[in-house]
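Q: Sequence in, structure out?
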Amino acid sequence: MSDGIGMTGRTECRPWRLTLALAGLILLMAGCQRAGMDHPPADPAPAPPPEADEAGQLVPGQERDRPTLPAQQLQGGVLPVPHVDVTGVDPILHARVGQDPHLRERAEFWATFWTTRSRGHFERYLDRMGAWEAFVDGELEARGLPASLRYLPIVESGYHHSIRSRAGATGLWQLMAPTARDLGLTVDGVVDDRRDPVASTRAALEYLSLLHDQFDSWYLALSAYNAGPGRIARILQRHAPDPAMPGDERYLRARAHFPAETREFVPRFFAASVLASDPERFDLPPVDPSRRVVFDEVVVPDATSLDVVASAAGVDEEEILQLNPHFHRGFTPPGSERIVRVPQGRGAAFEVAYAEIPASERISFTEHRVAQGETLTHIARRYGVSVAELQGANGNLDPRRLQVGQALIVPIGGAPATSEAVQVAASNENSENSNTQPTIHVVASGENLWTISRRYGMGVTELRNKNGLSNSSTIRPGQELSVANGGVRVHSVRPGDTWGGVAQQYGVSTSALARANGRTPGDVIRIGEEIRIP
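A: Exactly. Output:
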């Protein structure tokens, strides 16, 4: 992240406004504090969560610098309860447990923190929220879940669809891989559905619903979402074992024994709900509904590169990548029908164009036959991919079951390639006659016209025409193809160069430039490195 917790936008705080605005968390019945309810003392700042500067929590060493609340805010009115649905009553924010003094005090702390030192971060959360709020609201309504859960991604990820915590939790809802798989999401070397705002939202809401059914309390469900249901169940068994006790009361009794981060989780959720439900009251920018992401959904029957999707839809590849961040290798998985998103209004055009692309030319991959003594690690290194990506492309292949002669799909989209074909191309490029003689490509096993055309920044039609091939022609290993005429342009990376800057300089797309070099736009380029210009 480029800016730390202390670097915010506006830092002016209006205590009178916060005091007046924070009034309703005690609109609940006044006598709800019962004998036997354990209320822990105010916690110190929690241990830093993953990606602290994007999750809006404190980082190590800043505890002593926490913003403090004026005394009158602790004695008089406190956080208002936002009206987040048509009835004005939310089963989380309007529950009686919301009167708990400790919860109110910690919620005030976070409200102050997000409107002072971390204001800049919270403004970005609200901006990103505009992209997916309408979709999340629709999913909540369809399931009959509390509308206030729309604010949970603020606490979890700042509404960032692909952020990853130090513990490995990923996406808008910060799901761990085992939990995501249990909920039916795919997490492997090719696809990570946790990065998909649509699929992850549906899975997270299903999970929250299951947690509520298990604990009969939204407060316990939220705590279990953060700490894990097994851990919360064990704490309850020890410190609030009576199953006849109302779930919210069990939460209050056992809360002191929750992990520090989990004790802070519900107050942070309350504070985020207050601020995001009425941001202008706190001089925060309103959620912008015009940021809403809209798209068409199309179905691809098998492995397909996202640049093929972009070409068929008639849009830039970057648009497809932004709409489909869960295909993190740049293609859909082999042997699986998948939904892919294209910009709104492009679905019909895609279906027509995609049907005309031969199945053999829809994906950038090659085939590798396992040789004696080879392991997945050896093969992955040879092709410049990770073992996880190699496993994911082959149905989560067990490396212990690798057999000599076995055919493996090797995803090469976006990966540095070291195949014979690329070595031949490099040799031709470096020859002194490369500026005047055609470059020859020797077809390797598993290659097709699409993978070859991608290598050299050509279109498939151009490659066919250059080699006198018809639409029905096939190519075979060892066949020589002419892939370029004229000079090969090379750019030597200078200080300050980026993929986008170099692409603009030469009038090519960023994705095409990276692809021509066997890379992705996210890869680092170094000063002095030579980049091939397609």
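The chain has four domains: 15-28+73-289, 294-361, 364-413, 414-533.
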